[in-house]
Design goal:
The structure is a single chain. The chain is built from seven helices and two strands. By secondary structure, the protein is mainly alpha-helical. It has a single domain, classed as Helix Hairpins (Orthogonal Bundle), CATH 1.10.287. A two-stranded antiparallel ribbon has the order 1-2. Helix 1 runs antiparallel to helix 2 and helix 5 packs antiparallel against helix 7. The longest helix is centred in the last third of the chain and has 39 residues. The protein is globular. The two termini are 36 Å apart.
């Protein structure tokens, strides 16, 4: 999942301007990501049912936006992606912070959640742009997701280049909220993982 997410966010989405063929390939990879998300929680029936519903809706909207790309359908596709990734991130966090030793899978899971946050906000910014129009952001021209993903990641990491700025009030609030999450998530995550590792190592010493 981590490899697919990195490929999607840093290779495929930035190359969406390669034409219809490239965009079609991106949608295929996105569909595979949704299915991979479902398989990753296959052991938990409750999570599987819920995330399966979100993934099914996401798949439908993903391909519907290709066939019938109206503003309403595109906004629905963005919001569907947000809800799926939000629930998926929640499930991963539960697995990451469950009791036990700190493994590489937990570290990968925490990275996936961080990337999913950036992806979720890019969909939200894209939806705001579609709803409020081109005047909602400075220096964004067109509806390519790559522009909003770039802005989302610069907001999440608080790099703040200033080349793209939000103008619409909701977009500004979302950018501030994402920057706040970008600051708090790594700090809380690292503190929690260190605590879990300390507790796990203490238990191992007690057994010895």
């Amino acid at each position: 999942m981590l490899v697919l997410l990195l490929l999607f966010m840093f290779v495929l989405v930035p190359s969406m301007s390669l034409g219809k063929g490239g965009q079609f390939f991106v949608k295929i990879i996105y569909s595979i990501m949704l299915l991979t998300g479902v398989l990753s929680v296959a052991k938990n029936k409750k999570h599987l049912i819920l995330i399966g519903i979100f993934a099914g809706i996401g798949l439908l909207l993903n391909w519907l936006s290709k066939v019938y790309p109206t503003t309403l359908v595109l906004i629905a596709h963005d919001l569907g992606g947000v809800f799926f990734n939000l629930f998926f991130a929640f499930v991963i966090l539960i697995k990451t912070f469950k009791k036990g030793e700190i493994t590489i899978q937990r570290i990968e899971g925490s990275i996936v959640v961080y990337l999913l946050i950036g992806l979720m906000f890019s969909y939200l910014f894209h939806a705001v742009y579609l709803f409020a129009g081109a005047s909602s952001f400075n220096n964004i021209f067109g509806t390519d997701l790559k522009e909003f993903l770039y802005f989302s990641l610069t907001s999440l990491t608080t790099m703040g280049y200033g080349d793209i700025t939000p103008v619409y009030p909701l977009a500004r609030s979302l950018a501030n909220f994402e920057a706040l999450i970008g600051q708090l998530y790594p700090a809380i995550l690292i503190a929690r993982l260190v605590t879990m590792e300390f507790e796990s190592s203490s238990k191992r010493k007690e057994k010895i």
